Amino acid sequence: MEMSGKGAIGLPEPDKETCLSRLVSARRSVRRFRDKPLDLRTVSQLLWVSYGYVTSRRRVVPSAGALYPMEVYLAVKTNGVEGLDPGVYLYEPESHGLRLVRPGDPAGDLYEACLRQMSVKEAPINIVIVGVPERIVAWYGDRGYQYMVLEAGHIGQNIYLAATEMGLGTVAIGAFDDDHVRRVLGLRENYVPLYILPVGYPR
Q1: Which of 51, 65, 50, 57 is nearest to 144 (CA)?
Q2: Which among 102, 73, 98, 72 is positioned nearest to 87, based on CA atoms?
Q3: CB count in 10 Å sphere of residue 60
Q4: Is 88 exposed, middle or buried (0-12, 13-18, 19+ CB in 10 A)?
Q5: Which tens digit of pLDDT belongs to each residue from 6-61?
Q6: By three-state DSSP, how is residue 79 classified?
Q7: How far is residue 164 from each of residues 18, 19, 29, 78, 140, measured CA to CA in Å?
């Protein structure tokens, strides 16, 4: 063990060749996307790593009290996913399926809701992470809001790493008009949009 400046303890060099190390090293934010659709298998993988089940009770991310107060929405633009009509879909982890919430291309409206960030408009899909406070605040009080935000972070990092592994790109967007996003997705007023991640092939 070596001492570095001001009495700090030096650590052994990290192993940067493990699978996870390579992914976190390669991970970066991508804001421009090619005009190329994703296939349904790719979308399936992205959604599963976001909030899917590992066992009948445990999902891919940690959740305070295993309450899982989040919902994941998929906004698909025209010709964004092969074999899938444009629209807003709710990911249903229990069945690992999609339920159409609103038909029609949402890209333009979501672009406006996100303060005209071009990545939202260019990407074939946008994954929107939404919190439902009542599912966790009833147990943890106001602290539940913090736990909900932490959980959104876990989901976002999983999407980043999965996108990197599949040769895709994404960027985490937190600057948007909440009410406008609710209208685009058809959300109830008590649902809280927390994160929007455009995903596609990098330019």
Answers
A1: 65
A2: 102
A3: 16
A4: buried
A5: 779 999 999 999 898 898 888 889 899 999 999 999 999 999 999 999 998 899 99
A6: coil
A7: 15, 12, 10, 24, 35
